[in-house]
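JOB MANIFEST
job_type = single_chain_structure
chain_count = 1
residues = 156
[input]
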Amino acid sequence: MILVEDSNRESLEFSLVHRLAEDIQVGLEFGADSNEYYPVMNYRILDANEEHPALVIGTSSAWPSDEVDGNAVTLTAAQMLGPRISGSLTLAHILEDSSWRVPASLRYGIRPNLEGTLMYDGTQLHPLLTWRRDNFSFSFILLGAEDPTLSVTVGF
């Protein structure tokens, strides 16, 4: 949920994702403003180890970008970089306009249940602070480093 008016992003978005197996999850995203649905799928094709990062192929909405809409197909490499820090690099193909983006992220574990993340969507930086407890996580996000946003995740 975006906490400011005059944003060209969906003000409220819902996601429902189910893990079918250890390496695959599927689901659906819904944009309340546009009344549009987007499929979600992530399949880990390679586990990370000391020699190489994990590789994941997937699809989801092009969120958090404010410049593109619709679905994106992605290939992501992710790796632990240290005891409490991880990073990812993605090649994303935006289906709506056939453009390409190179998103990336850097996540740091501040405490066992608190982490900070810098997420780059290919053009803008989005800082996050996430607190986790049991099956819940709460994130405060500054979309484009300026639009305050809340995210709540419930695992079941």
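[summary]
The mean pLDDT is 91.
The CA atoms of residues 89 and 131 lie 23 Å apart.
exit_status = 0
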